[in-house]
Amino acid sequence: MLQIPAWKRVLILGLIALGLLYAVPNLFYNRVEQHNDAIANMERSGVETPEDLAAKAGWPNWMPSGLVNLGLDLRGGAHLLGEVHVADVYKARMDSLWPELRDALVAQRETIGAVRRVTAPDGQLIIEIGNADQIAKAVEIARGMATPVTSISGAGSTDLDIKGSGNRLTVQLSDAEKAATDDRTVQQSLEIIRRRIDEVGTREPTIMRQGADRILIQVPGIGSAEELKQLIGTTAKLTFNPVVSRGTDANARPAAGQVVLPSLDEQGIYYTLEQNPVVTGEDLTDARPSFDQNGQPSVDFRFGPAGAKRFGAYTSANIGQPFAIVLDNQVISAPVIRQAITTGSGQISGSMDVEGSTRLAVLLRAGALPAEMTFLEERTIGPELGQDSIDAGRLSSIIATGAVVAYMIASYGLFGVFASVAVILNVILILSIMSMMGATLTLPGIAGIVLTVGTAVDANVIIYERIREELRRGKRVAKAIDDGFNEAMSAIIDANVTSFIAAMVMFFLGSGPVKGFAVTLTIGLVTSVFTAIFLTRLLIVFWLDLRKPKQLVL
Amino acid sequence: MAFRLKLVPDETHINFFQWQWLTFGVSAFAMVASVVITLVMGLNFGIDFKGGTTIRTETTTAFEVGDYREALNNLNLGDVSITEVFDPSFGATKHVAMVRIGTTEETGSVTPEQLNQVEAALKTVDPNVSFASVESVGPKVSGELIQTAVYAVVAASLAIMFYIWLRFEWQFAIGAVVSILHDVLLTVGLFSLFQLKFDLTTIAALLTTLGFSVNDTVVVFDRLRENLIKYKTMPLIDVMNLTCNETLSRTIMTAVTTGIALTAMLIFGGDVVREFVIAMLWGVLVGCYSTIYVAKNIVLWLGVKRDWSKPDPKEKQDEIPAAFRDAP
Lengths: 554, 328
Description:
The structure holds 2 protein chains of 2 kinds.
Chain A: H1 6-23, H2 29-45, H3 50-57, E1 69-70, H4 72-75, E2 77-84, H5 87-106, H6 109-112, E3 115-118, E4 124-129, H7 135-143, E5 160-165, E6 168-173, H8 175-200, E7 206-210, E8 214-220, H9 225-233, E9 238-247, E10 258-262, E11 270-274, E12 279-280, E13 284-291, E14 297-303, H10 305-317, E15 323-327, E16 330-333, E17 345-349, H11 354-366, E18 373-381, H12 383-412, H13 414-437, E19 440-441, H14 443-472, H15 477-509, H16 513-547
Parallel strand pairs in A: 1-19
Antiparallel strand pairs in A: 2-8, 2-18, 3-4, 4-6, 5-6, 7-8, 9-11, 9-12, 9-15, 10-11, 13-14, 14-17, 15-16
Helix pairs in contact in A: 1-13, 2-3, 8-11, 12-13, 12-14, 13-14, 13-16, 14-15, 14-16, 15-16
Chain B: H1 20-41, E1 44-45, H2 47-50, E2 52-59, H3 65-73, E3 80-85, E4 95-101, H4 112-125, E5 130-137, H5 139-167, H6 170-193, E6 197-198, H7 200-230, H8 236-268, H9 274-302
Helix pairs in contact in B: 1-6, 1-9, 3-4, 5-6, 5-7, 6-7, 6-9, 7-8, 7-9, 8-9
Region (Disordered) (chain B): 309-328
Domain Protein export membrane protein SecD/SecF C-terminal (chain B): 118-303
Subcellular location (chain B): Cell membrane
């Protein structure tokens, strides 16, 4: 065991050197961060500004530039856990199915009688037919509209679940289709949220799916969770609908296919609109903040070819009629069409400030969320609190390391020095591996590093205690050290595996800071075994070769 | 001869089982007491587990908790608690309070409008006040978080038990799990007794000390297995005492180094992680005790197979203790 081949020595020392190299950027955190930001900035915009070039020059390109990612609790920022109302989509699907199904049923009016949609719970379509004895025929027609589900789990089933009883036909999405729809809805929401946050251009946001219908969003550096919520919480569903009438009655009964929506600016005014929009936000290709002819903030938008064509056709056919611009079920404005708009562009103005118009433009560009979101968890951490935590963490790590080093040297003398070198390198290695992985350091993570300082010496202690015993049995120095290492190995492995199990459980079941802690702890376990077994042994072997001691006091 | 700090002398011959009924009684009593305390006093759950909102306020001048409370009373927020936070690192110009608002029946947690009202009300009391962190968790998530936390502790215990059973014998696994249970109960009991904030990070601390405690236990078990092979006919109780004396120096050493590191964190780490560090420090102490006085005793009472080298029954008659045999 004490004969370590040259290549192994080089490998061990090489790994340590590599670790040191990758930990270095963290010493110059701000400078390296600006360097990285500048590179990202220039890549995104394609423009090389002098400031970016200066920031880039602040850190040499040939050096590693990976940094330990600071968690929200250290950097400050906002954290949201949102739940997507996946069932919203079921309702929209039923509403869009109705006209098609109605036409199909009405075509068979002679056999099934009059067709009427009755109020039903959300996500269900209930239709009453005139001739109850012909319900089987109605079911058959409805079934004809169903299409096979294209998902692995839903193979062999169709997207609609259709039942007939009495004179009622009940249509809803089948379970397989619901599952497939849910998945699509969450994926879409995730994508749109990511686009909205990227538009604002913040650094390293975390946007990920959690469980079936939840989305976790963490944005460092943003002022508050409230701000973040305004950015991603709005569905931003934009539609252009024909106006039927304008009134002050919120409870006006709309005819079938019509809706009553409140006005955004005018208190107490309600519009009755056709439910099917002429064009929607999905037809937009661009939206940008600007000012209208009165100097008020507004948003300019542009339709794609298909949208422009439809909008042009509608406006030329309805000159003199009002149409409504509806955002999230509120009428922003209802201008009268003066002339056909065939250019495919337009302007939304209303009561909004510059910030509001910028945000609306971002929202319109990124697209509408397919379903509403509610927030189950909101956290804002101020940047000062984060900095305080970093300072406290750094101070306590240094003191803890110093105290442990002093104690180890007092207990084991020269061998204590070896163990101390191992402990200090262990902390550096943890930081460098986290930098390489881009892992996130949280406040509990710092506590984890401090704890690792305490436990990392454990492997050394087990070995040294073993060597002491072997020495007491009267073995020669080299033999005692060799046996000490060998005998201690199984205890070290077992002890670390059990800690590893606990860390894994935390990683898979924990969230946020706990997960960060588990990552730090796991990395610490691996590096501490490496430093205790390989590095300390190498140091001891160097010492043995150099001094060839006859006696060892441990 | 060079100086060496030794908390434990080279050779110890402590009979750890001399007082085993007493130590067992103390452990059992402490476990029962922890359960009773937790049931009677309850735990001071953080918003992770209970739902609600916490606001951390920071200001440069001293303030009266009463003034804050008065300012918030008019807002009709339901269950509001305000505590001043003290920390040696704060100095004279930093005064911190935690405002906690419970979940309300209708809305679940505090609405953004209410939050603005709270912040405005506190600003009128003290214009310098800033809000270092604002966190709110809805009741739906908090329920799930409790469930996940319980799963985590149970899953970790089972996984560790399985591993020990694999590497050693089932008696060892039982011993280790009983000592895990002992450590977890005592930690929860401490948090209940002093009404320390019990949240997600406390669970992380609990799992860590659980790993640490088992780590300790496993090192002793490893040596015990080795000694069981060495001294085949020595009574089990004596082998255990020998093992425990041999590993005592290491057990104390590691507890001390870990204790030193955690104490540094406790004093200088700031108030945000204080509960977390307390849980770990206490866990290390209790874990050290349970290694010496709980895990082994369980194995002793359950008995354990003596022959670890070969299945041949004749081997059992080998003489002790001079015969030195390598581990298989």
